Amino acid sequence: MAATAPVTDRSLSLTQIKAHIPITLDMNQMNYDIWRELFETHCHSFNVLSHLDGSLTSTGPEDTTWSQTDGTVKMWIYGTISESLLKLVLKTKCTASELWTTIENLFRDNKEARAIQLENELRQLQI
Known about the structure:
It is a single chain. The protein is mainly α. About 60% of the residues lie in helices and about 0% in strands. The chain starts with 8 loop residues before the first helix and ends with a helix. This is Retrotransposon Copia-like N-terminal domain-containing protein. It comes from Microthlaspi erraticum.
């Protein structure tokens, strides 16, 4: 099994996330699957997927490299979601993985509710 390459400063220097992920995640747009694919691809290219899936965690308060990278991933997330969604998920002292899971849960739950709503609307259509 190959060892995971260390996170590079390249990921920490990228701040214009909208140039790489040109859509804004929004509860009303139903674009979670597209946003997620773009975001995961972006994180994969910068070798920081472990900050989304939680497979790499901080070794303690002195682990500044991990904290800085995690903060960058959180900023990427915040920079690609709508203001209304930001208000729902913004909380202090959470990790990128916790934020990622919160967003995933919001959209998975919303997707099922939206499917039921659309099914009911379809039944009510008169031809």
